[in-house]
Amino acid sequence: MEIRTDSGASIDYLNVTVLPLNAERWATETDHHGQTKSKPDVVSFDVLTAQGNGTTTTWYESTAQSTVSNATDRAGYVHVAARSSAVRLRFHAGADQPLGIDEITVNPRIPFAFNAVRALLVAGILAAMVLLRPGSELYRMRLFDGSRRRCAMLAVPVAVQILLCVVAWQAAGGSDSFRGIQEQSAIGGHDFDWDQYANLADALIHGHTNLSLEVPPELSALENPYDAPSRYDAISAGMTPVYWDHAYYQGKYYSYFGVIPAIIAYMPYQLITGKWLVTSIAVLVFAVIVLVAAMALMVAIARSFFPETASVGATVMMYFLFTMGTFMMCQVTGANFYSVPGLSSMMFTLIGLSLWISAKRPTRSGGVSSTKVFLGSLCMACNLGCRPQFVLACALALPLFWNEIVHKRLLFSKRGLLPTVMAIVPFFLVFLPLLAYNYARFGSFLDFGSNYNLTGFDMTNINRPLRLMLPVAMYYLIQPPSIQGMFPFFSSPGTPLDLWAPNEPAVGGVIMLMPALLAVLLVARLRKREDRTMFAVAISCLVLAAAVVFVDAEMCGYSWRYYLDFTWLLLLPLTFVVFSIDAERKDRDAVSWTPYAKCVMTFLVVSLFVAALAHFGLLFMTSRYYSVMELNPVAYFQVADWFLMM
Amino acid sequence: METKLMKHSRRSMTTVLMLVAVLLAGLLEVGVFNAPYWNTRGNVGQAATIDVGADLDPRADGTYDVTAFSGNTYLEVTSDEDIDYLLLSTDNAAQFGNETISFLLSTQQETDSGYYSGSRSIHYAPVSPTSGYVKVGGKSRIVKLLLQPKNVGDNIPITDITVNPQVPFRINSVRVALVIGLLWLAVLLRPKSELFAWRLQDGGQSQWRQWVWMAGLTMAEMLVLTAIWMFAGNGIHGYRGVTTGVGGHTVDWDQYGHLAESLLHGRAYLDIPVSDGLSQLSNPYSPATRYAAIANGDGPIYWDYAYYGGKYYSYFGVIPAVLVFVPYQLLRGRMLPTTYVVWLFAMISVIALNLLLVRVARAWFKGTASIGMTTALSLAFVLGSNMLCQMFSPNFYAVPVMASLAFSLTGLWAWLRAKRVPGRLSSGWVALGSLCIACNLGCRPQFILVALLSIPLFWTELVRDRLLLSVRGWKATLAALLPFLLVFIPILAYNQMRFGNPLAFGSQYNLTGFDATSPVISWTSLLPMVFYYLLQPLNFTGYFPFFSAEVATYRTWVPTEPLPGGILMIAPFMLAAALIMQLKRLEDRTPLALSWLALACALAVLAADGMLGGSSWRYYTDFAWLFMIPTVFVMYRIDADTQRSVRDGAVEGVESEEVSRAQVSRLTFRCFMALLVLSLIVQLLMLFMENRYYSLIDTRPQLYFIFSNMFMAF
User: Fold this and answer.
1) What is the domain extent for residue B136?
2) What domain of life (chain B) (predicted)?
């Protein structure tokens, strides 16, 4: 479509009104109340501007698409401002596809719109910059100064983080997304059963381990039901329903995802209310608990290792670095069953570590607190029933309690009999039933069933060459993000691999998105301390992180979801480093930092804001799985409107 | 104070580390880079039966022609053992010249009933038989090569496929040399290296050793740039004559040669025939009009020439033509190939930047500047000023910018030299400096902003000593200002003569891909443009050459070419400029003032380049080298800090301020050196980027494959 101004005035803005096309022909969804809800219509085009008029006009085309919609009142505005009095819109609709454009207004009067969310967000960022700047008062306040007031202050960042989490969750569809069964919508025509966890809980309540889902006879008849192409063929030939990412074994469907979230959340909910727990809400609840637990961990580390020096500012800053550094936003904004194991494991690990670390503070009798080690071990053991990779965290007990075991003989000694028993018993309490559950399902204690997964490749015959680990590990760690000069700013960098491997849209390596992680290289400073526990734990974490990255790269390929598996193993050493840098003051009254500490802290604060910007961009990225554009287009266009002046 | 024992232990440590580096390189060469040999030992390759896709037709010579694109453009081999490697080969490879074919790998295991495809394009060229080794693995029993030819009718130059060949053992001396070179560089630039204890000036002692080192360094840099110019840039043979360009325009690579010829004959316009079709166009500046005219047979129309009043002109800076092309043509009677001029100015730039560094060290860091830091900064300057990009394409586009770089660096060096004796100003050197700086107007005009640096540079002489703009300093003032008149007036006259306006350099009459007479770049593109120029992250892939060009996207049209990423990403050590406030601790405030002004000029040039010309890799040099000015000052300052031997006797929690400052300096030092080596690796790899203009895989595949084959193990 070509638009010209008669007066020759430059076209600065356009308002493209998009028609809501016939609901039956265009995209609709049935929401959980059974009502049809029509999705907003989105139209994309290139903008071409012109020079010259009369017979020869040269058209110059943009290299980025503009997108308009009828999602909001303002989603039709397009900023041109190319000193051109003529504009062409080149649409990307295919042949025979209806194009719903109603009107195009030139240089409309764009109404002033005060946006409370935007204003709050900008105010919040500015406030955070002021409060967390290296010269801030907060870094001069000791966390443990005898009064409870300082610790109470920590409730504020937690509240802020929870609020941001809820807002992001809501932007990505909130409780409306990922419910029920979505037929034929996965690869190859598989069905998505978004209530897999609720199904699992329901099965357990009714006393069986397999899911009460109908198994088509053709599936059992397949020679190798795990082979993807033969499944796709059978589905095309009419086999249904086959559920994506469900485990299938000897004629029954199972869930290979960790069973503990089902037991602690879904089963009680169903038993109490009689209804199935909505997974997106469960994800939010786990996420909120993780956010609280992260602060608990910060305080536990501060109290056990830096009681004299930890400042409020450093705790708050490290808290935000930690929560953002886990990249749990991926799970929160794709709040489906894939996110449940990771977030619940994160929750157990953070709580468990907090308990173990605070157990190191001697009790009144001078020993190790039995209650804390018991509860800590219980939490850590639960990892086996959530996301098994996190079970490696239990190995951290050794460096963490080395002093107590070897030097102070408070564990594994006659004196420390009770705490030792309390530390070990939970593993039996949790592991044995889980292993029995495996046996009951698949006839083997160590078979968690992930290989019986019906997915895009045959998981019972994985033989990918080890060399693929290297590029995938690089994509996880050091790949620069792909950033453009216009909303949503972030897009997926390519992740080419020479042989096929599971590969989801990339976001960029963790070190690039959160440069603060480079400060982990300063762990050597921890070696100079009298108590070498932190150094030992930090090195163990780094080794485990490398192992997890390579194992994930080899077994699971690349996905943003798996960042959660290893980032915390980098963030824990970072926490130690940050608190130790925080302690480097010019004098014992903790007035101001040494130049070195100030330099490192400045770097960390800058990195924090870089990570925050990255999170904003990644939230609205359109090329990710479960994008906001897909799940909640109204939110997408509301935020896109913030950048209309660009 | 370093004792003799400490010096000795430093030196022996360096020697040990260098020997370790050689050993490591050897181990890597034998064990890692030759891993394919170890993995395939004992293999006896099986010639495979090739299953040919329906889109391909076999030819008599054993290769295949593409007849359609229906999704069946493949060659497939099957084996009853696991396929770990394939060897693609071509009979009579010589007759296929530089043909290259790309493909994706699609594999099937015994237990699969379908294929699984990779996403990385693998390249094979008959001109490089080693490129035929393809790693597969994953217990694949069937391998399909999903070929990616560009057009129907293309040839697939593969005749045979061998399954599980034995990959030969090969010691690649270039690879070994590169690994050793990089490791030695890291050893020499480590904090404890004796290069940093070796002062540039040892008080009254003879400095012939330092001069030898600097001369050697300069020659090494010249050698590397020459090698890039010769091989990657095809400097000896490339960019001559005419080729066909965008829209059928004629691209005349000897534009400067023609300009020189015209000047010799006393003409300002070029003696290139203007086609009737062009002279009759109502708006010759509109590209659409020109494309139509060419398609109509009304050409030839020359690309990137200025056109005015029925004649062709060159809008590129005239001074290189006057100084180099004209004398050569006078003497030899033929046109000088442009690539040699780019090389010449690059060599002058390298010499000038090293002279300038030594002069800066002497002026402000006399007692402390070390050979090590000077070496590092010299490398940084070459990398930071984007010279590798210019040497990769040593055509007429690179002449003005390299000439300006040479003039600016020489001019600054001369001006600094004029200040050598405090309280005195050498008129001769001032004049030389002014002359060089003034010449920028006739090369790449953006660089003329460098003249502003004279203000902080001569502030003391101007204000305190009153050696300039005063009765006492009449000679120096004349020396400073006269050259500008001497150079500007002829250039402005030249403009007047050509276009009737002294300020019209002719770029607005350029025949190019947009109408240069009325700019169309929207101001809304400025912010994204600054981002793309400075901070756009690199585009990384897990396979050689590891980097890929970026696309700069804008909502409305902006002229843009493939970019590598922001200058602060390809030369991240320039972030040291952010520590500009460290310069406040210097006694003389001149470095601080120069640094701020240089940063301001850099941003101004960036914005101007962007709004006038869009985003292009070539333009980085215009402003990037200015970022080096604060970087040089800051790093020499850090150099001074790290040398003070401070014992690290900190008590936990309470550190003396001086100890801490030294730690900051050491941290900055380490980061700088690490980023320098990283930048070198990145920029060298970027020479092989596949989607840049005139990429090596398109223009010189044999050279490309020599390096890509080095990574066969990965």
Assistant:
1) 46-169
2) Bacteria
- The alpha-carbon gap from A211 to the nearest alpha carbon of chain B, in Å, equals 27
Based on the domain organization, do A136 and A283 belong to the same domain? yes
Residues B130 and B159 in one domain: yes
My answer on whether B146 and B200 are in the same domain is no
Choose from B86, B555, B712 for mutation: most chain A CBs within 10 A: B555
Q: What is the β-pairing status of strands A66-69 and B155-156?
A: unpaired
Same domain? For B455 and B582 the reply is yes
Cα A532 to Cα A549: distance, rounded to the nearest angstrom: 26
Indicate yes or no: CB of A463 within 8 angstroms of CB of B109: yes
**C-beta atoms of B655 and A458 within 8 A:** no
Interface test with B, best of A12, A16, A45, A51 (most B CBs within 10 A): A51
Phi, psi dihedral angles at A186 (to 5 degrees): -100, 175
Domain interval for residue A486: 122-176+278-641
Nearest-CA distance B514 → chain A (Å): 8
Element (H, E) at B106: strand B101-109
Tell me the C-alpha distance between B556 and B499, whole Å: 31
pLDDT tens-digit readout, B211-237 = 999 999 999 999 999 999 999 999 899
What are the tokens at B257? 């040669």
Residue A112 inside a domain? The answer is: no
Mean pLDDT computed over A266-274: 96
Cβ separation B555–A64 shorter than 8 A: yes
Domain assignment of residue B419, yes or no? yes
CATH number for B118:
2.60.120.260
**How large is the ipTM?**
0.92
Nearest CA to B137 out of A473, A555, A228, A463 is that of A463
Tell whether B435 and B320 lie within a shared domain. no
Mean pLDDT of B568-580: 96
Quick check: A485 and B518 CB within 8 A? no
Answer whether residue A116 is part of any domain: no
Q: Binning pLDDT at 50, 70 and 90, where does residue A261 land?
A: very high
B60 Cβ neighbours under 8 A, 6+ residues apart: none
pLDDT-derived band at B546, boundaries 50, 70, 90: very high
Between CA B530 and CA B535, with CA B534 as vertex, the angle to 5 degrees is: 105
User: Nearest-CA distance from A501 to chain B in Å?
Assistant: 8
Number of domains composing chain A: 3
* Interface A-B: count of C-beta contacts within 8 A: 223
Q: What is the pLDDT of residue A56?
A: 62
* Preferred mutation among A3, A60, A462 to probe B, highest tally of B CBs within 10 A: A60
Residues B29 and B140 in one domain: no
Inter-chain residue contact B660 with A457, CB threshold 8 Å: no
Taking the CA of residue B358 and the nearest CA in chain A, the distance in Å comes to: 30
Average pLDDT for B270-290: 89
| B408 located within any domain | yes
Q: Which of A59, A63, A457 sits opposite B553 (nearest CB)?
A: A63
Local confidence band at A364 (pLDDT 50, 70, 90 cut-offs): confident
Is the pLDDT at B398 greater than 50, yes or no? Answer: yes
A22 domain residue, yes or no:
yes
Within a domain: A248: yes
Residues B343 and B321 in one domain: no
Q: Which of A56, A495, A643 to mutate to test the interface with B (most CBs of B within 10 A)?
A: A56
In terms of CA atoms, which chain A residue is nearest residue B135? A498
Q: Is B570 inside any structural domain? A: yes
Q: What is the mean pLDDT of residues A622-644?
A: 92
With an 8 Å Cβ cutoff, are A83 and B663 in contact? no
C-alpha closest to that of A263 among A274, A271, A275, A253: A271
Q: Is residue B647 pLDDT above 70, yes or no?
A: no
CB proximity list for B159: less than 8 A, separation 6 or greater: B61, B62, B63, B89, B90, B91
The two tokens of residue B437 are 């700086």
For B524, how many CA atoms within 13 A lie in the half-sphere containing its CB?
Answer: 20
Q: How many structural domains comprise chain B? A: 4
Determine whether the interchain pair A464/B288 forms a contact, defined as Cβ–Cβ distance below 8 Å.
Answer: no
